[in-house]
Fold each of these.
Amino acid sequence: QVQLQESGPGLVKPSETLSLTCTVSNGSISSYYWSWIRQPAGKGLEWIGRIYTSGSTNYNPSLKSRVTMSVDTSKNQFSLKLSSVTAADTAVYYCARDALYDSSGYYSRGFDPWGQGTLVTVSS
Amino acid sequence: QSALTQPASVSGSPGQSITISCTGTSSDVGAYNYVSWYQQHPGKAPKLMIYEVSNRPSGVSNRFSGSKSGNTASLTISGLQAEDEADYYCSSYTSSSTLYVFGTGTKVTVL
């Protein structure tokens, strides 16, 4: 079954750029939307944005000015960059599979599966 | 876009049934059948339990069921078991530019 794994630095300095990659294994990245979701310690989930395998993106307006997502289908990977980070961006970051969109239609069946999550701390 | 409203906590004894509500608006829960529910144990990633309001993914116990009425979706756990103790989050597609909104989360305690 499809598995996702986040990777990237666990510590980022304030004002710098957070960069994470999600690697998809045991399945193709094609024809799906892929989302990033974060969760500050002890708090709820926040949807950051998503990318389709064509490179088309949707971002949460609250983060849009600082977010860039990209996809590398040859490596079965997609990535997140969040610029000008502050302590408020400290959270566990998850990647997850989103909707299926192919020639037969659009199917949104929840976020499934999820990566295990990676803690990113913003601190000097 | 505000988070969907869930009760902070719900509790029940083993074997009982509990229901968690998720209240949104006519722009999200009330407008689409793209409501999903997630279970999250401490230190773990969320797990999809229900999608499209009432559908269970393969492998999820039939003790979990979902429904929707108007702007409120609900998750019912029947035959409550100790392993069901976790945080639960709802999520909905929304017509706002946010695209997806999550609920505030509910801590389920098995007494």
Amino acid sequence: RKEVEQDPGPFNVPEGATVAFNCTYSNSASQSFFWYRQDCRKEPKLLMSVYSSGNEDGRFTAQLNRASQYISLLIRDSKLSDSATYLCVVKTNAGKSTFGDGTTLTVKP
Amino acid sequence: GAGVSQSPSNKVTEKGKDVELRCDPISGHTALYWYRQSLGQGLEFLIYFQGNSAPDKSGLPSDRFSAERTGGSVSTLTIQRTQQEDSAVYLCASSLEGGANTGELFFGEGSRLTVL
């Protein structure tokens, strides 16, 4: 079983739709959680950190459930420019960051 | 300021040859990671350096792979006797760890390795 698991998708949604991605992790010693975005043939870049109380950044909302070892990302009012692969990242207190394989989103007009 | 710099950006080599990939992290970043990404796949962890601690080499796929980080800065990933399955993009990332830092990883643009 992989340390970090994501539904690979692809998710194909129309502009304006709301879409949610899920991620589960197996290492209970995990301490920090993030969502990264990777555009085609580009390097990953941080989208947002995920805090225990949940956090929002514009149209993006991240949630963490430590008991279930589950992380989510909600995108509201999808834009064409949101099309990318979204990577769930889990970091242990030893500092090692492990990436999920990513969920691919395509937003269509 | 300069970001993470990797070289070469592209490398084509013949099976059995050795290759060296270089990563120059952001100045002052204490942590450095190597990942590789095959086409259409996720990021596979290879190795992690943090300050003066012993590196976490748990992701290196075989003893043909090795990495070093000199002076806590530049890192070199060496692949000996390359095989076709080594073909991938090798991504380096650095981060500033400790205190209130989020530990955000800053990636280089990667070194695309093709083994013929």
